[in-house]
Automatic annotation (TrEMBL):
Protein name: Probable DNA 3'-5' helicase RecG
UniProt xrefs under InterPro entries: DEAD/DEAH_box_helicase_dom, Helicase_ATP-bd, Helicase_C-like, NA-bd_OB-fold, P-loop_NTPase, RecG/Mfd, RecG_dom3_C, RecG_wedge
Domain Helicase ATP-binding span(s) in chain numbering: 298-471
Record GO biological process: DNA repair
Coiled coil: none
GO terms assigned for molecular function: ATP binding; DNA binding; DNA helicase activity; hydrolase activity
Domain of life: Bacteria
Keywords attached to this entry: ATP-binding, DNA damage, DNA repair, DNA-binding, Helicase, Hydrolase, Nucleotide-binding
Pfam families on file: DEAD, Helicase_C, RecG_dom3_C, RecG_wedge
Organism: Tessaracoccus antarcticus
Length: 734
């Protein structure tokens, strides 16, 4: 639990239930708001001015809206339930307001308020009746020409009346049905005075350098607005706080790392790396050479390297990492490669030992004079094999160690750890990086790899303590992959053609993947959200085996299988004993089967852009051109899904697709596993706010270089806040 040095940070981090009660806090939690600070920084999505009319053209059926409109006509209708119907207008369009009266006097009262020519603010859900838009039983207040309340619907909407009377503008907050915008405004009004009285979260000299409003001013402008421009300035301060706090924490990490010492690992001519390079059966790409030289320069320094290597699918990151590892082995150190899954760890082991040949035979009789040993350590190793692996690591016989989380456990002791390579960074956190580093007498060099291209704005946000290298160029022999969208809603008969294409490829001696979002009817894999009618591996395979793919050799792989069962299926597919592998996203990374030429993705609209791009990268890895068929039936209201699929069809550039993915996610957590919904970044949007992120990065460096920052409790608390977020969410993800 964090210890806060200043009253303002202590109050902002107070649990909301301690401030407003359990019942209210539960409703705020549904919006991802758990502390006083979360609520105070919950800003209106827009502002209503009682003196301005709304535009009905933007209204959509099913959405919660707030409109300022003029009453055109009102009448009382009789029936099973007496009701008041008013026609309101924005000056060009019309909207029906329907109010059901519990008793006759309610109808008389409401109709007297809704006089033709009067104006009001109406809040409710847009529906349709008789082909016309309507609001059924909305909340409302009537206002005069200056926006002041003249009448209201009933006593239960006191909070709505107070919100309108509190300021010239009315803020409309992101809300839920049980927590309407007026209750949010009322809660903020309750918390605001005590927060403002505690002053700023930043020292005055930092506020001056940043050129932003003070926090008390900003909160007043945002939550009690009198002018839209000033409200935006207030929001800018809150936006700045998120960016600056994050960059201050990253700057502190960089300064800490700069103060550490590492053993220099310069290249040694005529040893293992030289022999490996001489034997390579292909030429390195220009990108591989350039990034390699950068890494070699940093390894040779007495300061630890901290570099992020991100590359296009199939761009050859493993070769770059292996050459770095061999450089460290040549200098007498050990290199470890940490993979997120056993499947990927074993794939790396097979790839690296295959590339090294007898250079990886260690001390075996007949091995090359400079050979090293490559050791695999995973959680499923038998006890005897695990003891042998641990012994090779401890004695230094293993120059290269490949493994999973098992490498982080206490029994693992390295002889001389010189380099840590972390594959698929988004699966590991800063604490896990530190756990490996702690196993070395001196800080080891660190190379972080990801096959999911990260937009520069995200890399600067999330990996601010790492330098970034990119591999955009693909090896010359990589075959092209054609991607086709198969619309199974409008053309259900095309599914049969997809199975036929698989049969055609297998007849040529090639292999195929079929990817499903679900394991079974109730189990999904990884980040896919459960939903009805999703294709499941365990249900599709039997249908294919007895139907369209009856005479082919089918295998299955998913995350709920035992490690041995899944490994066997993967090995059978890699060796050609299986023609078609029906799998979930467990094949997303690390599976290298050059003979696989076709992939069918079921329910492709259930996946994100980058995930589909990763899956597509499993084919076309050899000399055969690839075909990726994206089967989906996106219906109305699934425009984003159609845009995602279209993006995959139009581009095979992972960096371009990463930017497009970021644009489409909009308000979602651009870094989180769910790829949508809430985020610890409440306001900051790394694509839109890239300039702000760059500016706060520079400011953070200047602030930490200032002597006034050395013992400032406000800055210390701000960094604690950022590190708490880091440990909990977005700094740990990619």
């Amino acid at each position: 639990m964090a210890t806060w040095r200043t009253p303002i940070h202590r109050e902002l981090n107070r649990r909301l239930r301690d401030a407003v009660g359990e019942k209210t806090a539960v409703q705020f939690a549904k919006l991802g708001l758990h502390t006083v600070g979360d609520v105070i920084r919950h800003t209106p999505r827009r502002y209503l001015a009682g003196t301005q009319m709304s535009d009905f053209a933007s209204l959509r059926v099913g959405e919660e809206v707030a409109v300022v409109a003029k009453v055109q006509s009102t009448r009382i209708r009789q029936g099973a339930r007496q009701r008041v119907e008013s026609l309101i207008t924005d000056g060009s369009g019309y909207l029906t307001v329907t109010l059901f009266a519990p008793k006759p006097f309610h109808a008389t009262w409401w109709s007297s308020m809704l006089e033709p020519g009067s104006r009001g603010i109406f809040i409710g859900k847009v529906g349709v009746f008789n082909n016309s838009l309507q609001l059924t039983h909305p909340d409302f207040v009537m206002i005069d020409g200056q926006g002041q309340v003249t009448a209201k619907k009933d006593h239960v909407k006191q909070s709505m009346q107070r919100a309108v009377q509190r300021a010239t503008l009315v803020g409309l907050y992101p809300a839920t049905a049980k927590l309407p915008t007026w209750v949010i405004a009322e809660t903020i009004a309750l918390l605001l005075p005590s927060i403002r009285s505690l002053g700023d979260t930043l020292p005055p000299w930092v506020v001056d350098q940043a050129g932003v409003l003070s926090l008390p001013e900003a909160l007043t402008e945002v939550h009690e607005p009198v002018d839209v421009t000033r409200a935006e300035q207030g929001r800018d301060r809150l936006l700045f706080d998120e960016a600056f706090g994050m960059q201050l924490a990253m700057a502190q990490r960089r300064r800490t790392l700069d103060g550490l010492e590492a053993t220099p690992r310069p290249r040694t001519p005529g040893r293992l790396l030289s022999e490996f390079d001489n034997r390579l059966p292909f030429e390195l790409t220009q990108g591989q050479v350039a990034v390699g030289e950068t890494i070699f320069d940093e390894l040779a320094r007495p300061r630890p390297m901290h570099r992020l290597l991100q590359g296009e699918v199939g761009s050859g990151k493993t070769i770059v990492a292996l050459r770095a590892m061999l450089t460290v082995v040549d200098s007498g150190g050990q290199a470890v490669l940490l993979a997120p899954t056993e499947v990927l760890a074993k794939q790396h082991y097979a790839t690296i030992t295959g590339l090294l040949g007898d250079l990886g035979d260690g001390q075996r009789l007949g091995a090359h004079e400079h050979a090293t040993s490559v050791t695999l350590l995973t959680g499923s190793l038998p006890a005897a094999a695990k003891r042998q692996a641990l012994n090779e690591i401890t004695t230094g016989d293993a120059g290269i160690v490949i493994g999973t989380h098992a490498l982080l456990s206490d029994p693992v002791e390295f002889f001389e750890l010189g380099l840590v390579v972390i594959d698929e960074q988004h699966r590991f956190g800063v604490e896990q990086r530190a756990a490996l580093a702690a196993k070395s007498a001196q800080q080891p060099h660190t190379l972080v790899m990801t096959a999911t291209p990260i937009p520069r704005s995200v890399a600067m946000t999330v990996f601010g303590d790492l330098e970034v290298s990119e591999l955009r160029e693909r090896p010359a022999k990589r075959a092209a992959v054609t991607t086709v969208f198969v619309d199974t809603f409008n053309n259900p008969h095309w599914v049969e053609r997809a199975w036929q294409r698989i049969r055609e490829e297998v007849a040529k001696g090639r292999q195929a993947f079929i990817v499903c979002p679900a394991i079974s009817a109730k189990q999904t894999e990884g980040d896919v959200d459960p939903a009805t009618d999703m294709t499941a591996v365990t249900e599709l395979l039997p249908r294919l085996a007895s139907g369209p793919l009856a005479d082919l050799r089918l295998g299955m792989a998913h995350g709920k299988q035992s490690v041995a069962e899944r490994d066997e299926a993967m090995a059978d597919f890699a060796s050609g004993r299986i023609d078609v592998l029906v799998a979930t996203t467990v094949i997303e990374v690390g599976v290298d089967v050059p003979n696989a030429s076709v992939m069918v993705v079921m329910d492709a609209d259930r996946f994100g852009i980058t995930q589909l791009h990763q899956l597509r990268g499993r084919i076309g890895r050899g000399e055969h051109e690839g075909l990726c068929l994206l089967l989906a039936a996106p219906g109305e209201g699934q425009e984003d899904a159609q845009l995602r699929i279209r993006a995959l069809v139009l581009s095979d550039d992972g960096f371009e697709l990463a930017e497009r993915d970021l644009e489409l996610r909009k308000e979602g957590d651009v870094l989180g596993a769910a790829q949508s919904g809430g985020s610890s970044l409440k306001l900051l949007r790394v694509l839109e706010d890239a300039d702000l992120i760059r500016a706060t990065k520079d400011l953070a460096d200047r602030v930490l270089a200032d002597r006034r920052a050395l013992n400032d409790p406000l800055l210390a608390d701000l960094m604690t806040q950022a590190e708490l977020v880091a440990a909990g969410e977005w700094l740990e993800k990619g």
